[in-house]
Write a structure and sequence with these properties.
- With 334 residues, this protein is α/β, with parallel strands linked by helices.
- The protein has 2 domains: 195 residues, P-loop containing nucleotide triphosphate hydrolases (Rossmann fold), CATH 3.40.50.300; 107 residues, Orthogonal Bundle (Helicase, Ruva Protein, domain 3), CATH 1.10.8.
- It has 15 helices and 11 strands.
- The strands form 4 sheets. Strands 2-5-8-1-9 form a 5-stranded parallel sheet. Strands 3-4 form a two-stranded antiparallel ribbon.
- Helix 1 packs across helix 9, helix 10 packs across helix 11 and helix 10 packs across helix 15.
Length: 334
């Protein structure tokens, strides 16, 4: 009983800290509350986020602001076609000492940080993209046979332009699956754009302040994993994920629509993100409505349309909406 009371107190205290963090972020990244919530949810879950949107919508500004507010050491990599794995991971160099002795010294690459912004990640070659696979999954890199741990915590926030595809390399499925959520960054509303104009074109801009520390974020991730999830929510997650797999009996209606569906990692992501959404809303436990709300961000990048479905003009968002309505009785949040 005392343990449950302590957990409730921790959740309530964390909710207040998160509200302060969101307010600090919104001083520089105006509007787009859903985008902020999804990125914060990914970080609370200890995961990575893929931000998909046109240039000029503030994706880089958001990541820079998060580095300040969350108290994390941040680095930025501009992905280009000529970027090599060593440019990300680092490399060993041969040095000669004053006495003539030679030895290799490792020079860390920009990936050795706590918050990495991978800008326009799909512009790098598959060879370079593969340099992130071990880092994103195991939080370490192997160079010259030696395992080198990364910062703790370690998060990758990658950006991708959905329109300009010339000179890009689509992310492989294994890479996409390592992103906890896909965050679609849309145009702001007229009222929000007006606020942006006024706030960013004057002599001074509002600044964000630090709210979390690295240790504080790690502690928050521990609290999230202790948050209880009811059996009804667990069953809703399983129903939704399995209904999106064309090879499963639950997903036989989608056999001619999907080339493949989400794997177990998608169910794990939903289990974590529904808790994060409840935390951000100031609630003590997630509901089935949270499963529906997180369906698109968690599932969209883990599914692929069949050729026939693409020819008919089907969309993954529409399929997820229909599946959520059929399995949960709720429509996925737009």
């Amino acid at each position: 009983m005392a343990e449950a009371t302590d957990l409730v107190a921790q959740i309530e205290a964390l909710g207040g800290t998160l509200a302060e963090a969101k307010a600090s972020i919104n001083r520089r990244f105006i509007g787009q509350e859903k985008v902020v919530d999804l990125v914060l949810a990914a970080m609370l879950c200890g995961g990575h986020a893929l931000l998909v949107g046109l240039p000029g919508l503030g994706k880089t500004r958001l990541v820079d602001t998060l580095s300040t507010v969350m108290g994390l050491k941040g680095n930025r990599i501009q992905f280009t076609p000529d970027l090599m794995p060593a440019d990300i991971l680092g490399s060993e160099v041969l040095e000669t000492a004053a006495d003539g002795a030679r030895a290799f010294r490792f020079i860390e690459g920009p990936i050795f940080c706590q918050l990495l912004m991978a800008d326009e990640i799909n512009r790098a070659s598959p060879r370079t993209q593969s340099a992130l696979l071990q880092a994103m999954q195991e939080r370490e890199v192997t160079i010259a046979g030696q395992h080198r741990p990364l910062g703790r915590p370690f998060h990758v926030l990658a950006t991708q332009n959905p329109i300009e595809q010339e000179g890009t390399y689509p992310l492989p499925e294994a890479q996409l699956d390592r992103f906890l959520v896909q965050v679609d960054v849309d145009y702001p509303t007229r009222a929000t754009e007006r606020d942006i104009l006024i706030a960013t074109t004057g002599a001074e801009e509002a600044m964000s302040h630090q709210v979390f520390t690295a240790d504080g974020l790690i502690a928050a991730q521990g609290v999230l994993r202790r948050m209880p999830v009811g059996d009804q929510v667990v069953e809703a997650i399983l129903d939704l994920v399995r209904s999106c797999r064309p090879g499963e009996p639950e997903g036989r209606d989608l056999a001619d629509v999907l080339a493949w569906g989400p794997g177990p990692r998608a169910a794990q992501a939903l289990m974590l993100t529904v808790r994060a959404r409840a935390l951000l809303d100031g609630r003590l436990a997630p509901s089935v409505a949270d499963v529906a709300a997180m369906a698109r961000p968690v599932l969209t990048h883990r599914m692929a349309l069949s050729f026939a479905a693409r020819a008919r003009g089907e969309s993954l968002a529409g399929i997820i909406d229909r599946t959520a309505t059929r399995t949960l009785g709720l429509e996925a949040a737009a």
